[in-house]
Specification:
Keywords: Bacterial flagellum, Cell projection, Cilium, Flagellum, Secreted. Belongs to the flagella basal body rod proteins family. The chain is an alpha+beta fold. Helix content is 58%, strand content 10%. The chain starts with a helix and ends with a helix.
Length: 481
């Protein structure tokens, strides 16, 4: 080996060591950066001697990244569904809660019994009216809570669609940059990191599968079969509303669905083209869970109204007159059941806040003057109507007959079972997502290993530097001769 070839070999070794040092430093600095792929320098022997830098490799496991994305989508979906059911259950409360639906029905029932035992006591009649008002207020507030959750879901859908469209456009642009950079022989690792971070963002909204295309590009397909990105970007459109009401449904045309490239797509939880992630969960809350909750609550409110809107219970009522509980002051119309829980109020005839008198509970809602203060027959009839076994005229409660408090217990039990099942699903998806995340991190940057590599690079650098020094000493010796 000549002095010149030795010097040349040492110089290529120094360049390789420097490039290795830069790559290792970048790995350590980005150990916690989302989407970052571990880099390594590809080296080979040069035909003219020394070492040649072939390029930079980005080491990732594409299949594992896709599985992690799908797990994140499932976790987001389960979390949003569980949150809605938990919030609704908390609002209705559990039976042991003194402010729960069951407790307020029990309190109303108890106050009716107490008033019947002393029909001459105004304070007992007042307490019964207050209990009826509290019950109506809770049911009405629960209905508004459902509609607010549906409205929030509609706003969230709009936000996520905008976020999804922006991310897809960004991935398309990075695809182009990667192809251009590869054609120029440049390193595309940083671009691929940015693209992976965007794909992870998309996966949280809509579960997607990533397919490699030519020239370093990728295509994205939702697990529901929608083409989101394959050369061109899908145009996803949605029209939000300001406020969702009980009358507004997707099936009725009052709420917007989704279109992809101008074509409407399914958004149901069973077969939604973009379902399975946080976007699908918001559609399920708005169009399925919220609608079902409203339907069940309306059925309970209807049953409560009809128990007292009967001349057989209160002889002072004529057919079509409202009872203790009303539809914003008027009698309940079975053809106008949707949203009745939100419109539920107590009759103004007994409500002192509306100019009424509580003695009408004892003497009849349409009584014009107080009657016998010792007559408890109507109060007993009202108590009996509340505890009577009736088959609900609507709702999904089965075919059995229920007292009012049993009907409420059935409603909260159904809700509790749905919430428990949702929590179980959330726990499973959370565990799966965490495990896959750990696997991805395990294949990421190992700082201990990178530091060991850095020590080897330092030794390599020192050896090549010593070679250059030795060549210099030999040249100096030759020149002195």
């Amino acid at each position: 080996m000549t002095i010149t070839s030795a010097l040349s070999n040492a110089m290529t070794g120094l360049r390789a060591a420097g490039r290795n040092s830069e790559t290792i430093s970048a790995n350590i600095a980005n150990a916690m950066t989302p989407g970052y792929g571990v880099r390594s320098v590809d080296l080979s022997s040069s035909q003219i001697g020394g070492v040649k830098i072939d390029g930079i490799s980005r080491n990732v496991n594409p299949a594992l990244l896709v599985d992690r994305g799908l797990a994140e989508a499932a976790f987001n979906n389960a979390s949003d569904r569980t949150q809605f059911l938990t919030n609704y259950e908390d609002f209705l409360g559990i039976p042991d809660d003194p402010d729960s639906l069951s407790a307020r029905i029990a309190q109303f029932e108890s106050d009716l019994v107490t008033a019947a035992s002393r029909p001459d006591a105004p304070e007992r009649l007042d307490a019964t009216v207050n209990a009826a008002r509290d019950l109506a207020t809770l049911i009405s507030s629960a209905s508004r809570d459902i509609q607010e959750a549906r409205s929030e879901a509609d706003r969230s859908i709009d936000f996520q669609i905008k976020q999804l469209n922006t991310a897809l456009t960004s991935v398309q642009e990075i695809n182009r940059q990667i192809t251009k950079t590869m054609a120029l022989g440049g390193d595309t690792s940083a671009l691929q990191d940015n693209r992976q971070a965007l794909v992870d963002e998309i996966s949280g909204i809509v579960p997607v599968r990533q397919i490699a295309r030519e020239n370093g590009q990728i295509a994205l397909y939702s697990t529901g079969g929608a083409i989101l990105l394959d050369g061109g970007v899908a145009e996803i459109e949605f029209s939000p509303v300001n406020q969702v009401t009980p009358y507004m449904t997707l099936a009725g045309g009052q709420l917007s669905g989704l279109t992809v490239d101008g074509y409407p797509v399914q958004t149901s939880s069973g077969r939604g083209a973009l379902g399975g992630g946080s976007l699908g969960a918001q559609f399920e809350i708005r169009d399925e869970l919220g609608v079902e909750a409203q339907t069940q609550l309306d059925a309970l409110a209807r049953d409560l109204i009809e128990r007292f809107q009967d001349p057989a219970v209160d002889p002072t009522l004529a057919p079509g007159d409202p009872g203790i509980f009303t539809d914003t002051g008027i009698a309940f119309d079975p053809l106008n059941e949707v949203g009745i829980s939100e419109r539920l109020t107590i009759n103004a005839a007994i409500d002192d806040r509306q100019g009424g008198e509580s003695w009408r509970l004892r003497d009849g809602l349409n009584a014009v003057a107080p009657g016998d203060v010792g007559d408890s027959r109507l109060l007993q009839a009202l108590s009996g109507a509340l505890t009577a076994q009736r088959v609900p005229a609507s709702g999904d409660f089965g075919t059995g007959a229920f007292s009012m408090i049993n009907l409420a217990s059935t409603l909260t039990s159904q809700l509790g079972a749905d919430r428990a099942q949702a929590e179980q699903t959330q726990t499973f998806t959370s565990t799966q997502f965490k495990e896959l995340t750990q696997l991805v991190l395990a294949e990421g940057v190992d700082t201990d290993q990178e530091l060991q590599k850095l020590l080897l690079v330092e030794q390599t650098y020192a050896a090549n530097a010593r070679m250059i020094q030795a060549a210099d000493e030999m040249m100096q010796t030759i020149l002195r001769i």
